[in-house]
Every structure is written in structure tokens, then in C-alpha cells.
Amino acid sequence: MNLLWIGFKNHLLDSWDNYQSFGNTLEEACAQIKFSEAVVQHMISDFEEKNIHFEPLNHLTLYNYFKTDGFSVNAKTKTLNTFSAFIGHQNWSTFREKVEKREITRETYSSVPRPEESTNGTHFDLRERRSRWLLPAILMVTLLLLLSFFTWQHFEETKDEKARIAKAIKAASAAEFSAYMKIPAIDTNNLKKYFVESGTAYNSIVSILLRSRKRNRKLLVPPSSYVINDIEITELEEDQAEAESEEHWVIRWYDGSTDSEMFFDTINRHIYYLLKEDGTWKVQVDAYSGRSGQPASTFARRK
Prior knowledge:
Elements: H1 2-14, H2 26-30, H3 33-50, H4 59-68, H5 77-86, H6 92-100, H7 126-181, H8 188-192, H9 200-214, E1 217-219, E2 225-236, E3 240-255, E4 260-277, E5 280-300
Antiparallel strand pairs: 1-3, 2-3, 3-4, 4-5
């Protein structure tokens, strides 16, 4: 493992053109986390170019190796495989075989020049130094452009996903209100398009429908109506989301069992929990609390 680490550092020195922007010595560069990031990116690019399949290294792990000047005693084989491939060997196993056969020794890595010196021991010409800065600068600009593009792309995708969630909540509310209007008929198929069947929101609506049919209730439209004032997506994951909204519901029932009417006028703050099922956002939970716009009332129906 020690020889592999020495070989890795010598490999960096041998290709120092890629790291000129981090200083004139390896020791100077190793103190910078950005240097570890650059080395890892170089590893990834080198593996892709040579069509070598190894698991990418975490740059913070490499930074820790630089601080301790060597591998951890608990370094995993897949990590050693990555370093072995980077310096030109098939994997960790083949590197060890070469060490055991004395094909690789300390002397193997003793002739590599330091990065601040040329092969004849003189310092680089200033013009040459500037030219060697050009490639890392171009690479850095390219990486920044790619990062900006992917950041913008992620922002746009997130914005589109939030719009789909808001649309799903509006569709679910419309399906709920429509289901109330159809009583005594109960159409759960339409509700299942917008609600998770095992969720509390779906089962709560179905319970209201069943109770209302039993009591021979009918939704009076007008004045019954609802308005969603705003929807804010507060959390978003790949297949789960959370949203909040303020809604104004006006509900007026005619209760045929008592020949009376019930009136509710409420302004609620809803917290929605949604799941994505087969690519479609559906409401699982609708938790709400709020205040009455007007007091709830029950009164005899006028003949």
C-alpha cells in the first residue's frame, strides 16, 4: 500500500501540467481541497477515455489521504483498485503481484523530477509556465459552464415538477367537490385518479359520501363552492412531496332525514402529503385546520 501511494504521488508529479494552478510543489497543492477535486475529476476523465470501469473516489477521502500522506489501514479493495488503475495497472491484485516479484520497488519511482524543475534541473521558462496554465484554465471554465447548465436544468425540472404537483392538488379538490355534488351516487373511480387509495384523504372523503347518502343529504349549489387561494410546495423528493395551501370552502347541505340544512363557511390552511404513483402525483394526506368565515349553522328548511 505504501508503494502504491508513492506511485500515485509520482504519477501526479509526472503529469503536473494538469495541476499547475495549485502551486509549484505537490506539498503546496495537497493542502487545498480543490486540488483533491481536480485530481478526482482527472481520474474520472482518464477512466472514461480509456474505457476503464472503476468506482469514482470521493475527493474528501483523497484529501484525508493527502493529510496523512498515505492510505488508511482500512482502505477498501475497490479504492486500491481505483488508484492502481489510475497509475497504469490492471487492479490492486496485479500491482501487488508486481511488488512481490520485485518488478516494482522504491527505486521504480525515484527518478521522477519535481514539478518546479525541468529534466535538466533549471526552472521553467515564464512563457512555458503561462502556456501550462492555459489547459487547467480552459478545463475550469468548461466545468463551470457545465455546472451552470446542470444547475439551470435542475431548476427548470424542479419548477415543472412543482407545477405538476400544484395541478394535482387542484384536480383532487375538484374531484372531491364533484363527488359531493353527485350524492346519492358515489363515484370512487374518479377520486382514485387523484388520491392514493390507501391514504387518509381518500378514505375520509369516502366516509363523508357514505354518511351523506345514508342521511339522504344533497349538496346545494349554489351557494356551495370553494376557492384555493395559493399553493406552496414546501418539500420535494423523487416520489414524495409536501405542499401547503389556503382554501375557502363554503358547503351547504340539505339533510333529507331531518328536512333541515347545514351551512359551513371555513377558511383553512391545508397541508398536503403526496406520493407519485406510476408517474402521477396523488394526494395521500390532507391535514387542515383553520377558522370559520361564518359560524356553522343548522336551520329548518323552508317549505
